[in-house]
Task: structure prediction
Amino acid sequence: MTGHLRIVGNTRGDRLRAVAAHTRQALVVRCHQRLRGPYTGVDTVLRAVLPEAESRWPELVEEHRVALLYGMPELEQIIGPAPRTLADDAPYEERTRFFGAGWIRCMSQGIVTFLLEHVRRSHDGGAFEIVFEEAHAAEATAQELIALLLRRADPRLLRVVVSAAAGRLSDELEGALAEMDVVAAPASERPSAEDRSALDWARVYVDSDCTDDDPRALAGYRQTDPPTRALLHDLRGDALAGAATWGTRMGAVTHHREHGSDPGGAGRAALLEAQRHAVATGFSAAVVDLGLRGRRVTDPLLHGHDYWEFTREAAAACIPVGRLEQAMELYQGLLRRFTEPKIHMMTSYALAMLHTRFLRPRDHELAVQWQHNAVAIAGILPDPAERLTYSVFHDNGLALVEMHRGNPGRALELVESCISRLDEKLDEGRWALHRSQLLYNRARLLVALGRPDEAHADYSQLVDMDPYYTDYLSERARISRDRGDFDAALADYDRAVRLAPPFPELHYNRGTARAQVGDFAGALADFTLVLEMEPGDLDTRVARAELLLETGDLAAAESDIGTGLRLHPDEVQLLCLQGTLLLQRERLDEALRALDRVLAKDPRYPAALINRAVVHFRRKKPERAVADLSAALDAVGEDPDLLLNRGIAHLAAGRSDLALGDFDRALLLPDADTDEIREQRLLCTAAAFDSC
Result:
């Protein structure tokens, strides 16, 4: 077998025997999340390949430094540290920038891109094989990365083997494995009893961080009395804690502390520390898991603040992983349990954000009601410092709701008030991250209010404040594009690409900018990278198909359109491109049917109307072409090219008077092709003279 492979077996020993039989010299990594949390197994792969990469291709490591270190900062021992952002250096209580599942997915894509390029450079004739063992027990982040690697890796260069117990994996990983060969690992005979006590087996089980699937170990653990089991967990936790990486602290250490002799003390503290790290990093699934576990070991009467924090962070992390109902239940539970004003203040804010940003349908009026509650409580907090910072925070939240309600002017007033209050009352270094967020919000509002020059200045200030946070470069590039300054825009996009993991939106935006300046090869490279990472990205699929049509690569365009329609059946943009392709191939009847399908779904779709007009014109039906071009003009407004083409269709239909009117209207519009219009106008006047 040379393709990717799935091995299914009851025990780790069974699976590893099958691995040995179906691989050569594979790198076998354990993925059980109880060991080192979200990137367990991925960290082992990187430890294996980074020394060679750093030695032979340091520029490759540098290109992917942020992604390689993001969830595994301990790897800086091999390649040095990552660049720092304001969020990295902000105290935990001042963090107001948080990242969700999409952010981590981009980091995983960066790791995958690095691995693929590394194996391409180091390829010596045989495939590099990686076995992800215990994939069924891998955390959601690791399962996602394995799925991405399976989909993107050429098994002739990098062969992926997924080794797991029977049962369902994540939907994405199951989808990636759907077409793969499956090997069932033969079950070994049940191990015979040995002259070892239940306590000895319990010690084996705990020392494996409770991942050993030998039934004797689990049975011994269960037969051991609870106080002794707790002591074993204490000893193992103590042994790990001294040199534990963040991964170990999120995985094994939290497990041992919550099952040790002091779950409500040491367990609660370990879980809270791990959850805070997961929140700061953006490991959303881990935040939910750690928060729910933390609630179970926390007495809300004795440690109300910790119980609230576990719950609040778990609820917030439910949102990016699509568990909105659970988020709402957790928030409402806090309101029922506590009377503490600050808890009601922050929970009101969270509910406002749910209603204005995430729930469908959105309810901005209910959001403003909840946010007013948060603002009101913030304004009466007894401590002046807290009253200032929380009032600013919640006024900023109210500004977001007002923007969603269609009141950008009021939103800008709120944000500018927040900025001035902090500048007046706090030293320059305090709450630096939140100040940057306020400036960011002001810049976005200025754009919405049609004040791009002021927004550009704000983004430039933000780039200086936080040069490694690339969203600001992308936003400034957008303004430069709107100004027509493509050199500045592309400079910002290029800088962002160098600094950031491979965000699909960033490469899509740079690709469209490159296409606008005629750099078709560069645009194609950006679009191709996005579709390699995210084949279902509709905007990029459409953009690449359009570019291929424009450059005359009809076969590649047809392939893109076909793939797009399989992923997005009946999508009008793709159906329109299909009609355009058929039109370019002069298959007019088929083009007409495709464009009719588009217009049956959206009668005012301009591109379909325009292309169908061309089909009608070429089929010698100029009156129908006129009707479609008239509908297109109604949809898009005065356009010199459409008026020119409708004039030509009028002329072909023998209506030189109407044609002349269209040509004259077109000449009055900016960006008109005056030479072509005047030439057609001469033909029109000649036709009118001949008819006399």
Summary: The chain has 37 helices and five strands.
